[in-house]
Description:
The structure holds two protein chains of two kinds. Chain A is α/β, with parallel strands linked by helices. Chain A has a single domain, classed as Glutaredoxin (3-Layer(aba) Sandwich). Chain A is 37% helix and 19% strand. In chain A, strand 6 and strand 7 form a beta hairpin. Chain A is elongated and about 80 Å long. The mean pLDDT of chain A is 94. The mean pLDDT of chain B is 87. The N and C termini of chain B lie far apart (72 Å). Chain B contains five helices and no strands. The radius of gyration of chain B is 22 Å and the shape is elongated. Chain B is mainly alpha-helical.
Amino acid sequence: MRKVFLWLPLAVFGLLLGVMGHGILNPEQTTIPSKLVGTKVPAFNLPAAVPSHPGLTNADLATGKPVLLNFFASWCLPCIAEAPVLEELKREGVVIHAIAIRDKPEDVARFLAEHGDPYARIGSDVSSRVQISFGSSGVPESFVIDGKGVIRHQHIGDIQPQDMPKILKALKDAQ
Amino acid sequence: MRVLLPLLFLLSAPAMADSRMEAAPLANVQLKDPAQERQAKALMETIRCLVCQGQSIADSDAEMAGDMRSMIRERIEKGEQPEAIRKWLITRYGDWVTYEPPLSSTTLFLWSLPALLLMAGGALALGRIRRKR
């Protein structure tokens, strides 16, 4: 019995080493999913981010038809990579609304001219307030919202070509 | 050259993408009422930054952390309770966002660990003392 106790400290040390080693080799998950998936979109009312598009309110996200809400910014590099995929989704008949984060009208206009414009409405969120109220933590990020304004799916990061079936399915399921 | 080289880093632009907007109004400006500012600061120190994980929003220079600081100060200025704001954030980002994890089934072990360790230590010490006699 005594002998077992003598080995105990070493065993505890080994256990700690294992736990810490595991932590180092498998870094923590870095995306923080929104807890609002499955609930109604928060109320908001954003002015237009560019003169060419109307602004966005939560009422625009509950019109009886599922929509894709895309958080983007002209200063966001992955958003450029995502732009052609969004255009492809638009060609598939998806209604895409956007919220531009911390952006100036001229910068948004330039971004749309350079990288394409798949958006129906674009709200301007200059202090990330609406983004925070969605539980979103960065750009780009997209939410599939059903006709009643309930968030059904969140996509963190840029939507890549291989993600398209997943997004289209989420939109179909939201019908 | 060896002296100048580190200085060159000061000139280089960081690769991180940032917006061209100024910081939100109250991101780096204290509230006029010191008591409110103290409340806001205490809350900010226990809210985790979303983009620079591992830092609190009080410590972070990230734009989103600044936006969150500004939001917290504005809401406290309007008279909202810090814990209500914390709850509001938790309903959006989960327990992850707070450095003061609330008691739940997953954190029960974490919270009871100090008491458990103290009891184990006490039992160990008691056994030793008894044996010596």
